Amino acid sequence: AADGDGDGRLLEPELDAFLHPEDFQHLQDLVAKETIEDLDRDGDGFIQVDEYIADLFEGPPGSPEPPEIQRERAQFLQSRDRDGDGRLGPSEVKLWLSPPSPDWAKVEAQHLIHHADLDQDGALSREEILGRWELFVGSRATDYGQDLHRHHDEL
């Protein structure tokens, strides 16, 4: 699907589409379909809230959900499930995986600051960044941790 010209080879933009298909409009339907296939445990073609949560957390039966999982459940029901039917269809999965945003870098920066700014001063100290290193390693803003190995005099 990423081989736009069908020549059996991937040029640089096609390789980028292959590695990050969620960022390419022509591949978003495929990404949504694959995500549904991965999470849809009952085979109905939709992702129910319990299927969504099961992908994030599976504790012993009857055990309470941690607060972060409770927040994810609420976000599913309040934001991701746009039509309120208790499940995500292909269009809702597309919006979840590739929400419309004019400035991805700003959105990612806001996300990182929101989750790592422990003293809520609007800036990240070295200690706050190192204290949440796993958040930064998993972020596109740091090229999935690669930028953390480069010298940054602006920090």
Automatic annotation (TrEMBL):
It comes from the Eukaryota. One of its GO terms (cellular component) is endoplasmic reticulum. Residues 27-62 form the EF-hand domain. One of its GO terms (molecular function) is calcium ion binding. Residues 57-95 are annotated as: Disordered. PROSITE patterns: EF_HAND_1, EF_HAND_2. Residues 68-86 have a biased composition (Basic and acidic residues). Keywords: Calcium, Metal-binding. InterPro entries: EF-hand-dom_pair (IPR011992), EF_Hand_1_Ca_BS (IPR018247), EF_hand_dom (IPR002048). Belongs to the CREC family. This is EF-hand domain-containing protein. It comes from Zosterops borbonicus.
